[in-house]
Amino acid sequence: MLELKNITFQPNSSPILSHINLTINEGETVSIIGPSGSGKSTLLRLMADLISPTDGQCYLNGESYINYKPEQLRQTISYCPQTPIIFGETILDNVSFPAKVRKEKCDIKRANYLLTAFNLSQYDLNTNVSRFSGGEKQRLAIIRQLMYVPKFLLLDEATSALDHHNQQLVEQEIFKCHKEKGLGIIWITHDIKQSTRLFSRRLTIEKGKISNEEVIK
Amino acid sequence: MSMTSLIFASSLLIIPIIVSYKQQLDLSKDMIISVLRAIIQLIIVGYILTFVFEARQPIIVITLVFIILINAALNTRKRVPNAVKHGFWISLFALVISTSITMTILILTGALHFKVNEIIPVSGMVISNAMIAINIGYTNLEKAFTQQRMEIEAKLSLGALPHLASKTQIQDTMKMAVIPTIDSAKTLGIVALPGMMSGLIIAGTPPLEAIRFQIMVTFMLLSATMIATMIAIFISYKQFYNKRHQLNI
Hints:
The complex is a heterodimer.
Chain A: E1 2-9, E2 17-24, E3 29-33, H1 40-47, E4 55-60, E5 63-64, H2 70-76, E6 77-80, H3 91-95, H4 97-101, H5 108-117, H6 134-146, E7 152-156, H7 164-181, E8 184-188, H8 192-198, E9 201-206, E10 209-215
Parallel strand pairs in A: 3-8, 3-9, 6-7, 7-8
Antiparallel strand pairs in A: 1-2, 1-4, 4-5, 9-10
Chain B: H1 3-9, H2 14-22, H3 28-55, H4 58-75, H5 87-108, H6 116-147, H7 149-156, H8 162-165, H9 167-186, H10 195-202, H11 207-237
């Protein structure tokens, strides 16, 4: 269970987030909507422990984030940023990174499975990624995040550069992980239809506060 | 060279001053100040070295080397990244270690003798090159962490520890700091006859002997710049992170 208790993030004079209280259960699927600059990405970065709140605390399974090692926490709550960042030169450099973090061998079988599921099977693992389109980079960044399925996956407009077909493929695979492995999903989206169609709960964030919370299904 | 010849040689300065004036480069003042500074500094150094060479006391040699080290460390302060605290001490530590290792090896292998006229100029070269490498390292480290912040955070968000998350940035920074020394080694004898070798030849040393000395200098500069950069960068990069392994820039 992920809990945010009275979270405020105010690096300068005006707060980006103020007094956020939120509980997300294991395996829950939550979408976050709201206008640009409302604090959605900051909220996800706080959940991923990439920044710390100026006030309040985040908890995982009742334990404050402070009691977890940062690397252990981020392998459990994994954040995929809005702009896809590609590592190194090849697909392998990217899909093998999570294994490198855990000092394990890269699961090539899973990498190939995910490449097929994300409509990138035309490429092999040694393909140079420097000329990948924005959509291909976005899919590769999500594949990297799914090489090991975390407890919670935080996605920041993860399908914004994808066409309808590829968007559906990505959604299918992520929600397959939810059904089969109990993956909890917290997904920032501007697509109201997407948020209604897929998620069990929808949060609206405006001016750094949760202005609305709806249970969808 | 007589003093009169040197005064006449100073007429060479007229050319850059005229060019600067005609082209409105606004460099004349800077040029005159830099030349005056160089003259004053070199005269002082000349007197100090005369005193040191005559004294032949190891403690004086070591003290002088230490003064050079402190001056070099002070000269790196401007380049220390904002996130890094105690930059002077980091630089001094890196310079002391790199100079000590390099000079000890040179003395133990018999390439250099513990003589004032060998230790002072050679350690000056080592320290100066290590200082330049540290400065390049600091500048590029700051740039790498600022410009590639998103890549570092993407790696952190996959559970990477700081050294793995910023490995690419550290490697690139180190390469950039050492490449000038490697490049200058590549062109030795082809593009330029290095200062020390030219000095020895002008002073009457046979060219083949001067070359041996220059080869030793090349080895020591590569070693010193690499050690100094590695120490300075490896201590500094950690300060870009807080205790929660979050970037604090």
